[in-house]
Amino acid sequence: MPPSLPPAVVVEEVRRHAEPLCADAGYDLVHCEFQREPAGATLRLYIDKPGGVSLDDCAQISRHLSDVLDAVLDEHIGPYNLEVSSPGADRPISRPEDFQRFAGHPVRVKVARAIGGRKNFTGRIAGMADGRVALELADATVTLALEDIVRARLMAD
Prior knowledge:
This protein is α+β, with helices and mostly antiparallel strands. The protein folds into two domains: about 5-85, GMP Synthetase, Chain A, domain 3, CATH 3.30.300.70; about 95-155, Roll (SH3 type barrels).
């Protein structure tokens, strides 16, 4: 059994290799996540490009990345499933530029540490400044440190 790296380290290593490959092929690596699941480890990459992403686009990127990621990850995480897909309407967002780009859009956010007794927030992205995301909730505005956000996904209007 290979030594187990924490998911955040796996994601960072994958981003380091996948972002340039995606960019060279004309795609934006939107989000990357790694989870150990009952059926085995899964590495999910979400890609996008102007005009949207097709199934053929996902298959092409998967083929391009598969050998590179296998060489980088195999000794650290063992066998895994690679999933490449479009971010879809409920796209995950995690980068500062995502929060700026989608200002005004509705979002669901989960944070690592409770803020005011809550870990889950639903509201509109009000903007981003100094590493903090502002969310307009129904009754207030909260600011969340980017590093405290565990998961954020856009919602349909």
